[in-house]
Amino acid sequence: MTLSTTTLLGLLKQQKYEFFSGVPCSNFADLFQQVSLDNDITSVPAASEGSALSFAVGAALAGRRSVVALQNSGLGNIINPLTSLVQVNCIPTLLLISVRGHTDEPEDEPQHRIMGANTHALLDQLAIPWSEFDGTPQGFMATLVKAEEAFQRSISFAVLVRKGQLSAGLGVVIDGEQQVSDYPLSVGSALEIVSETLRPTDLVVSTTGFISRELFRLSDRPENFYMQGSLGHCSAVAAGVALAHPSRRVVALDGDGAVLMHMGVLSTIGYASPRNFLHIVLDNEGYVSTGGQESTSVTSSLEAVAVACGYRAVSRCVTSAELSDAVARGLSTEGPHFLLCKVNQSHSRSLPRVTSHHTPEENKRAFQTALNEQAFHLQAVPAGVAR
Fold it and tell me: Global pTM?
């Protein structure tokens, strides 16, 4: 059974929910688009799950009943505000949790396995009552009744949503062609330029989602470490590699949603100042792998943030020529460099998954082997000989 997002929002409004925030997941169909078009609900597209919960708490303090939507992987990002803010102050919130990696469903991507097996136990440990949604209007209303009972005791309530239980509502098309903006480059064409400029010894850490999948399609190599989860942490992982191996050039391939989720790491990178680090952000102004929901980079200048955070050099690119020149400079001069490239939202319909050929552990071992073997050769070069 499936419930349309239009019907879901109607049922929420019947129960006087007026505020919505969260982080997208593909299991939610077009929920985020639908709520943004609804004049009866105030919606905030948050950069992280913890921020979404905090927005909802603020609205609740002002007397408005709130909903927070998130994937179960994001539970880790809300534990602190959930326990030290929501529960301590007895401010109830409805959590719509998209469940990936559930143990009684076909095997999901490996990054969902651990949280999928522990979602119920984690909610129980946090003393948050929950209910599995059955995909019907009656079932959803039954969960809202249970939520109301919890709210009367100032306790939050979680509704667990599975893949295929929500369908697109009226007025929003999510199954047609991917949106193509005015920016000339796609993620794939941008990565072709980056890949052509890389040297064999250059190391790459790529963010989760379509960016890693596009890189895998175009240029799978042992020197690539593909992030299979942990949205927002790509740049910190790459900078950690760069600081530990200053003789190797390290490239972080990031996205706007990922940078927005943990923007504070830009300040840390500027402070640590790894000179062998190139941070490339492919900014398509949305969360394309989860349905094309808009990100807040539309109204933000991430390159200006990088300047303020202390990156040595910052570039903004739109054309292929600009990108090619900026990557070449970033790989040949001292960093840290920040390169923002505006791209459109078009992708191949048949992007392969990294896990179709490499398990996460196999990818890790190959990357470490490539890193250490090349490091040995670099150390063996006699002094004074060009590398």
Answer: 0.88
